Amino acid sequence: MSSVPRPRLSRTRIALTMLGVSSLLGLAFLAGRYGLPAATPTIDFPALPLDATASATGDSFSVATGSVGKSSEGFFMLDHDTGLLQCHVLYPRMGRFGASFAANVKEVLPGGGKGGGYLMVTGFADFPGASNQPISSGAVVYVLDSSTGAYACYAVPFDRVAETAGRPQQNALVLIGKGEARQVIERDTLR
To answer: How many domains does the chain have?
Structure first.
């Protein structure tokens, strides 16, 4: 079998290619700078507040972020070994953490920990306002025990009045509900 030799790119050809690419980038910059028509259409997004959440899970810890109040951000941490779920809330006006909430997920999800694992994400719930309601609209955090499929949802009992006054808050996370992802269906009950 004979092999076909590959063409070699000379340094001159590479330099000319790079010059061409940089020239196109320069023209695109100048077109945008001086209001010339763009080659690609632009998309106008409405001026709405952005809300971004993120989560990550490792061997020992899971972390997530989520909106807690109108302008407050919560940082959620879950220790897989101890089951301690914490939420620290950033007070934007003060530029520091001002509230802490915690719960132990092992009380509800006993299968996690060493040899098991957890997954955690945040969401937002608009709870109806009532004087006897311990929680208001805000972040909820979902925790799943990946070894058993059991899950739980907790709400953050965040007090916006305390945040506005700059008062620190410390309380327990409120268990909203729990369930099983792996549900066994009895064939006899389907008949």
So the answer is: 2
For the chain, the straight-line distance linking the first and the last C-alpha, in angstroms and rounded, comes to: 68
Q: Read off the pLDDT of each residue in 55-81 and give the average, rounded to a whole number.
A: 88
Helix intervals (H) in the chain = 11-33, 160-165
Q: Torsion over CA of 68, 73, 63 and 149, rounded to 10 degrees? A: 20
Query: Which domain range does residue 33 map to?
Result: 11-41
User: For the segment 5-45, what is each residue's pLDDT rounded down to a tens digit?
Assistant: 555 545 545 544 554 545 545 555 555 555 555 555 555 65
> Is the domain of 33 the same as that of 79?
no
Maximum C-alpha span of the chain: 85
Quickly count: other Cβ atoms within 10 Å of residue 22's Cβ.
10
Its pTM stands at 0.67
